[in-house]
Design goal:
Keywords: Carbohydrate metabolism, Cytoplasm, Hydrolase, Magnesium, Metal-binding. One of its GO terms (molecular function) is fructose 1,6-bisphosphate 1-phosphatase activity. This is Fructose-1,6-bisphosphatase class 1. It holds the Pfam family FBPase_C. The chain is α+β, with helices and mostly antiparallel strands. The chain is 31% helix and 22% strand. It contains eight helices and 15 strands. The chain has helices at residues 5-13, 17-41, 63-77, 131-135, 210-221, 239-249, 270-282, 314-325; strands spanning 50-54, 60-62, 83-86, 93-94, 101-109, 120-128, 150-156, 160-165, 171-176, 181-186, 197-199, 232-233, 252-255, 287-289, 309-312. α1 runs antiparallel to α2 and α2 (17-41) runs antiparallel to α3. It is globular and about 55 Å long. The N and C termini lie far apart (56 Å). The structure holds 2,5-anhydro-1,6-di-O-phosphono-D-glucitol and manganese (II) ion (MN) (3 copies). Residues 59, 87, 106, 109-112, 201, 237-239, 267 line the site of 2,5-anhydro-1,6-di-O-phosphono-D-glucitol.
Amino acid sequence: MASSLDAHLGSQCGSDPVKRQVADTIRNLCGAAVKLRNKIIAGGEGHGQAHGATNAGGDVQKELDVVADRLFMEAAEASPLAFFGSEEQDEAVPLKPDASLAMAIDPLDGSSNIETNVSIGTIFSILPVDEEHRADPSKVFRQKGSRQLGAGFFIYGPQLLLVMSMGNGTHVFIFSPAFGGFVEMKTSIAIVDKAKEFAINASNYRQWDQPIRSYIDDLLAGSEGPRERDFNMRWVGSLVADCYRILLRGGIFLYPGDGRKGYAKGRLRLVYEANPIAFCVEHAGGRATDGTTPILDLEPEGLHDRTPLVFGSKREVERVGRYIADPS
Ligand code: AHG
Ligand code: MN
Ligand code: MN
Ligand code: MN
């Protein structure tokens, strides 16, 4: 029998008490993910309906956004966490005052896909909490992504998957109802260096800065243009699904800043989307930047700060950086 998630987490922690708390938190998140999966597969007309409010980022909250937020907040309350930061809550929520961890979460990623039976997900980021954060909680979610102790995402698709890293490779687990838990599916993923696919919401083309347009133009020109091969395009609209595909077969994902109101830094949030995705991608040998700067080196302005996000096959992400650095 393939080793379960428990065995993997045990192997990652050794006797380190903080790592054990990270592992305990991930175990609790798995319980919430299975509950959410059961609600999703049971269907429910209301899931994709507007809940009647907008969140701090201005997204209209769907019913399932709110249901997911409640499930993961319950899991957080049962975990060794001092703070809980969610896409669906304006402020960080204080939990256990003496705990040494904080968690930021996108409870439901890909909300626009809820009623279309397309894969959606949950993205989480686990950070340390020390005295300076207890003294000034506003600093908790302004930590750089390089300080993450663990991060990952669940995908609610044909399979319920957990993709995670505690800093020692990126690994995939599949929920097995027969086993009654998550079992190892892929260990130490390595993103291939050559990309053959790109992921971008091309409807925003007219809003992008010129270097991004030039880069996409050259991908579209393929081997008839300056590129050595033709490329294919995929855009799911659920970050977790696009990321998992890229982890498995390489490629590049771009959500650049654009000219729309409020989207100068793009649509994606740094703390609970870009940072955890970057952590998993980098620990799989890929790269994640805001176009030029590594995502994990960026200092968030706050829990809901946005960032342009480019990630995937190392060579391709570095090529985007050259288009931006030398637009000639
Ligand atoms: P969320 O549903 O958590 O708000 O995130 C949706 C994000 C991300 O999953 C996806 O890559 C992106 O929004 C899609 O953006 P567009 O709808 O602009 O394509
Ligand atoms: Mn949203
Ligand atoms: Mn999201
Ligand atoms: Mn979301």
